[in-house]
């Protein structure tokens, strides 16, 4: 029987990349570095400037894989979150996910205008792309560092990272549409899109989550069906994501809310599915970050190292902290908590995926924005990730387990 030589070679190469990335992640974990960073770097080494020299420039495929991976990660995050946790952190997280995103995008736009000398619209586009914290990066880093934070503080950070992607995506898509329709004002383009995305995302997420929970509680799922339960959960999450997007809502918001409701109303099945679902989310993250690493051309990114470093520093030290103070100071968060929330705004795959949207839309100068967004993510994972746990202990926020 003839062998498919090219298909076998591709399969072997993909498997080898994953094995190398996993082995590297297990060793770097002890230094506090994110597993996701290792997958990203392995993808870069396999790309056009690396030893393997694999050519890959399919932004559409990367965006599609990124959206599916994030949908699975957010659904899993909703299933892992207790309802009481959400109650504690919903108000501050909602402010950070809306007002905070807009403020962060505006701050980055000012820095990009000064550093890159780009038009205001492009600066805002870059700010929108890098404004959201990444759920997969935050969940992974919190799990790795094993911090014991105050429940309200932990809930604020985790819920914000899960629900701020819709706002960042709406801003990115809306700004691209506005740049293509110069006669319309930004408010005329963004306001209806934001209302549709958030409104439909919330409505379909709550309706879908309630329906899923009702059905799951009536299925004859026993403790022996943990693998089937995980597969069932993954299929339900992706189905809701696709349907919500089809109707014009935010699939990301819908799957997270649905996960919360399923955990609240059908906890036994939700908990049964989590070990298997964890494997699916790791596979999704691995595929996403390897693809994003392959997509980047390091020698082109290197040319923007200086402005990228300045923008990343401005985001971490100015734009994000200012947005956090604006949202959390009125809610009586202490200065230590505000400092930690500001520093815990890890960037991951979402900014790179969002920065690929302008490239697909043919926006002038989009390649520079994509490369700068990649640098921002890389520096965030390199600098903020390893220092997150030491900062929590220095601020006295980590509660040792008795």
TrEMBL record:
InterPro entries: Cation/H_exchanger_TM, Na+/solute_symporter_sf. It holds the Pfam family Na_H_Exchanger. It is found in: Cell membrane. The chain crosses the membrane at residues 6-27, 36-54, 60-79, 91-112, 163-181, 193-215, 227-243, 277-296, 308-328, 340-360, 372-392. It is a multi-pass membrane protein. Gene3D superfamilies: 1.20.1530.20. Residues 18-393 form the Cation/H+ exchanger transmembrane domain. Keywords: Antiport, Cell membrane, Ion transport, Membrane, Transmembrane, Transmembrane helix, Transport. Its main location: membrane. This is Potassium/proton antiporter. It comes from Pelomonas lactea.
């Amino acid at each position: 029987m003839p062998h498919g030589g090219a298909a076998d070679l591709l399969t072997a190469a993909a498997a080898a990349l994953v094995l190398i990335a996993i082995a590297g992640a297990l060793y770097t974990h002890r230094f506090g570095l994110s597993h996701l960073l290792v997958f990203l770097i392995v993808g870069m080494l396999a790309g056009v400037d690396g030893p393997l020299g694999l050519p890959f420039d399919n932004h559409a495929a990367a965006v599609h894989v990124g959206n599916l991976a994030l949908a699975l990660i957010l659904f899993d995050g909703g299933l892992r979150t207790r309802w009481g946790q959400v109650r504690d952190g919903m108000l501050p997280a909602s402010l950070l996910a809306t007002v905070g995103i807009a403020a962060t995008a505006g701050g980055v736009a000012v820095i990009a205008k000064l550093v890159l000398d780009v038009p205001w619209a492009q600066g805002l586009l870059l700010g929108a792309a890098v404004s959201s914290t990444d759920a997969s990066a935050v969940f992974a880093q919190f799990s790795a560092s094993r911090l014991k934070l105050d429940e309200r503080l932990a809930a604020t950070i985790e819920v914000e990272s899960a629900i701020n992607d819709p706002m960042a995506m709406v801003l990115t898509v809306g700004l691209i549409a506005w740049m293509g329709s110069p006669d319309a004002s930004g408010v005329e383009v963004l306001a209806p899109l934001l209302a549709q995305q958030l409104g439909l995302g919330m409505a379909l997420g709550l309706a879908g989550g309630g329906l899923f929970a009702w059905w799951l509680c009536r299925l004859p799922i026993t403790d022996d069906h943990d693998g089937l339960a995980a597969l069932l959960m993954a299929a339900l999450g992706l189905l809701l994501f696709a349907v919500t997007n089809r109707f014009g809502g935010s699939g990301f918001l819908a799957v997270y809310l649905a996960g919360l409701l399923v955990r609240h109303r059908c906890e036994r099945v939700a908990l049964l599915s989590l070990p298997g679902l964890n494997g699916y989310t790791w596979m999704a993250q691995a595929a996403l970050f390897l693809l994003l690493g392959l997509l980047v051309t390091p020698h082109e990114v290197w040319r923007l190292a200086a402005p990228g470093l300045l923008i990343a520093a401005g985001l971490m030290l100015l734009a994000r902290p200012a947005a956090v103070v604006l949202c959390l100071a009125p809610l009586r968060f202490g200065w230590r908590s505000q400092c930690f929330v500001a520093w815990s705004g890890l960037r991951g795959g979402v900014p790179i995926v969002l920065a690929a949207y302008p490239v697909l839309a043919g926006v002038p100068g989009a390649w520079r924005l994509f490369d700068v967004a990649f640098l921002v993510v890389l520096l965030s994972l390199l600098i903020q990730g390893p220092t997150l746990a030491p900062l929590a202990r220095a601020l006295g926020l980590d509660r040792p387990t008795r």
